[in-house]
DNA sequence: CGAGGCCTTGACCCAGCTCAAATAAGGTGG
DNA sequence: CCACCTTATTTGAGCTGGGTCAAGGCCTCG
């Protein structure tokens, strides 16, 4: 919860440009974004905004991880999503919503760019290429949510974890891979819609099933294909089921 | 599966205009949409397109119900969504996706408008007001999905059904209400992420819990407030948890 | 070295799933 | 309008994945 913000200004334009979302934006606009946008390093635990709170910024994660959450009436926390490099959030503000339906907390030290909402809205209006890009991104994200819903009903806990690990592998080749769980297991559990205890046990089952080697947050996957065969067995979409 | 299509042409403009999505569109564009758009009556069971099939149209439901579905590898059908008046689908095509990630089947006799994708894309590019409207709609839909995910993990089966009934009530007043389940219970079950058997039993439990009167597809709700208190007890958002 | 935060284990429980069957609800042809 | 067939819904019985509660481990940091 300790706030240890370092307010810095970096050459955002290059960063923004590097993401497909901003591919069609003219230089002067990027520059304008760059003038109003703020990049900050934020420490794990920092709360960017609370649920049901007014907010007028759109955020982009430059590095690290940010989790979006809601509070159940019962006081429990439901995790909506956990974001990283190049992902954005707070765009619900573009729909004119005053209060954020979810809160945002830094799950792992992160660098976060915030842009006043009106700037983005203006640019959407002015630059149709950008508008279409955002629109397409949202379309895909919605689809991603559909998949997520399906996963939660169709896959077992170990399969869901396996599917998650596969996403972490990105476009990597077949064969053996070593990877680090990027954030707390309890957060992963919530992200995958299960209890921490279940996560722990499910990971054990998955290990037995596909011969993982697990040391704390480090996981060795001897055979990706085998993992995907196990995890995606129940799913409706072919293997790389990411966007 | 019998196809009993009646291809008709109705004054679409008025219809389109009546939905907020098209509020900002200029008359000539509406007219152009009207020229290329086709409205058809389709019978229950008609399949509009299959999953993983190329498609170049965006659809709007004018009346009736359409269900979007995927096929699990196991051959089971997972329902993505069930749409009605004024809802649109197929917009994923705007993201350049060639193959539809889901299929569409008429769940209850419906009138459906289809518009060539390029027309919509053009209009998004040309008319920023329209573009923003679509963008906002998608944003809200994505949020809706988030809620859906939360519901499925936090609510019990009876609560989920209750929540669904509340959505059917729309902006109706408090007190007693009678309503008709708009489509097959088995489809509702799938839509809510449960088995038909579970649905049946859960509905019975809900009846006992909040004194519903059930006759086939007709349901009498004596006290909406009571229903919402029961259903939304576990949810993170206040009562009218729809868009 | 002790405190607190994570994570893992153990024991037990229950909502929802599965398989199987009985009943309603429509629809059709005579 | 009736008998018959098909599809939708309900019920019964039993099983189990995942949740809950309660203890330990473990590791980090002061």
Secondary structure elements and pairings:
2 copies of one chain form a homodimer.
Chain A: E1 6-8, H1 12-17, H2 27-36, E2 38-42, E3 47-49, E4 57-71, E5 77-83, E6 88-89, E7 103-116, H3 117-126, H4 128-154, H5 157-169, E8 177-180, H6 185-191, H7 196-210, E9 213-215, E10 218-221, H8 224-231
Antiparallel strand pairs in A: 1-2, 2-7, 3-7, 4-5, 4-6, 4-7, 8-10, 9-10
Helix pairs in contact in A: 3-4, 5-7, 5-8, 6-7
The structure holds a DNA duplex (30 and 30 nucleotides).
**Distance, first to last CA of chain A:** 33 Å
Q: In percent, how helical is the residue content of chain A? A: 25-40%
Taken as a percent bin, the fraction of beta residues of chain A is 15-25%
User: Biggest chain pair contact, residues each?
Assistant: A-B, 50 and 50 residues
What's the helix-strand series of chain A?
Answer: EHHEEEEEEHHHEHHEEH
Mean pLDDT of chain A: 87
Give me the secondary-structure category of chain A.
alpha+beta
Q: Quaternary state, please?
A: homodimer
- Unreliable parts of chain A: 1-9
Rg over CA atoms of chain A? 19 Å
Outline type of chain A: globular
Task: Describe the overall structure.
The first copy, chain A, has helices at 12-17, 27-36, 117-126, 128-154, 157-169, 185-191, 196-210, 224-231; strands at 6-8, 38-42, 47-49, 57-71, 77-83, 88-89, 103-116, 177-180, 213-215, 218-221. Helix content of chain A is 40%, strand content 25%. Chain A has 243 residues and is α+β, with helices and mostly antiparallel strands. The relative contact order of chain A is 0.13. The longest helix of chain A has 27 residues, at 128-154. In chain A, the strands form two sheets. In chain A, strands 1, 2, 3, 4, 5, 6 and 7 form a seven-stranded antiparallel beta sheet that branches. In chain A, strands 8-10-9 form a three-stranded antiparallel beta sheet, with no helix packed on it. Chain A has eight helices and ten strands. Chains A and B meet through strand 5, helix 3 and helix 4 of A and strand 5, helix 3 and helix 4 of B. The structure holds a DNA duplex (30 and 30 nucleotides).
């Amino acid at each position: 919860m300790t706030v240890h913000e370092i307010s810095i200004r970096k050459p955002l334009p290059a960063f923004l440009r590097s993401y497909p979302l901003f591919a069609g934006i003219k230089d002067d606009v990027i520059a304008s974004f760059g003038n109003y946008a703020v990049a900050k390093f934020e420490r794990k635990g920092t709360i960017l905004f609370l649920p049901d709170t007014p907010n007028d910024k759109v955020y982009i994660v430059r590095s690290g991880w940010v989790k979006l959450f809601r509070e159940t009436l019962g006081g429990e926390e439901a995790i909506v999503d956990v974001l990283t490099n190049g992902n954005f959030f707070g765009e619900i503000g573009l729909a004119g919503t005053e209060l954020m339906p979810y809160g945002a907390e830094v799950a792992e030290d992160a660098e976060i760019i915030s842009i006043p909402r009106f700037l983005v809205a203006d640019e959407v209006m002015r630059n149709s290429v950008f508008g279409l890009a955002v629109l397409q991104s949202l379309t895909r994200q919605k689809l991603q949510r559909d998949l997520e819903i399906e996963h939660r009903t169709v896959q077992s806990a170990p399969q869901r974890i396996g599917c998650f690990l596969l996403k972490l592998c990105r476009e990597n080749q077949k064969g053996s891979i070593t990877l680090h769980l990027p954030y707390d297991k309890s957060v992963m559990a919530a992200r995958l819609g299960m209890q921490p205890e279940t996560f722990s046990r499910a990971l054990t089952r998955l290990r037995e099933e596909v011969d993982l080697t697990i040391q704390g947050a480090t996981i060795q996957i001897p055979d990706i294909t085998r993992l995907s065969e196990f995890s995606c067995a129940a799913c409706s979409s072919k293997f790389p089921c990411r966007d």
